[in-house]
Amino acid sequence: xxxxxxxxxxxxxxxxxxxxxxxxxxxxxxxxxxxxxxxxxxxxxxxxxxxxxxxxxxxxxxxxxxxxxxxxxxxxxxxxxxxxxxxxxxxxxxxxxxxxxxxxxxxxxxxxxxxxxxxxxxxxxxxxxxxxxxxxxxxxxxxxxxxxxxxxxxxxxxxxxxxxxxxxxxxxxxxxxxxxxxxxxxxxxxxxxxxxxxxxxxxxxxxxxxxxxxxxxxxxxxxxxxxxxxxxxxxxxxxxxxxxxxxxxxxxxxxxxxxxxxxxxxxxxx
Length: 270
Description:
By secondary structure, the chain is an alpha+beta fold. It has helices spanning 16-21, 36-45, 49-53, 78-87, 90-100, 238-268, and strands at residues 27-30, 57-60, 64-70, 106-107, 115-129, 133-134, 139-148, 161-164, 171-175, 181-186, 193-195, 205-215, 230-231. Helix 2 packs across helix 4 (78-87). The N and C termini lie far apart (57 Å).
């Protein structure tokens, strides 16, 4: 049986023209994305936030905190592993490629930055553009797809995916992380996006599965500059934009300089 049977058939082809033409960058939102029975299987097999702490990486930075990321596919339940296999299948990738108008898309077998995402109450992910290049494979990042598994998610719980213009002055889209919804967009130097503060009750967490696609070919107009994640403050985050973010950037630069110095000294003394 084809893995494509696990998604609703109308999902992608009907959105092709709308997705590629939308501004300021191509993006989409699909409800009831997966077959309902399969979506419930995935939902029921998600680990709790506390369980996830033992399985993945937890973030606690100014820009990204109370979030856990599990990329190791050996830690996935059978249902979540099947979801990963679906999203990495050639048939599904071909559908994404045609909808986004980006040929020769490739999945990342190591799920760098992807996989299971869980954000606890008090967590957030500030507005950013993603890293644009993987040195190891020499691949260019081109598409993000996020699938949400949160039942009875209320507006006051926050955790919306918000999309912004290139200057992060105007929000161009906000999508609640409701059960069985898929959101995706073409990643570029202007695809600014984030997650609004999560305010769910104790015992709950914002749960999603993320997958990213790449090409060996550089995107049209690429200037050759490789970068890691680039954060920007929202218009109402003056303190963060002017003080907290610059302070963390300085601290991270100092840590990197110390690591480089340590490596140099170690090399010199043999």
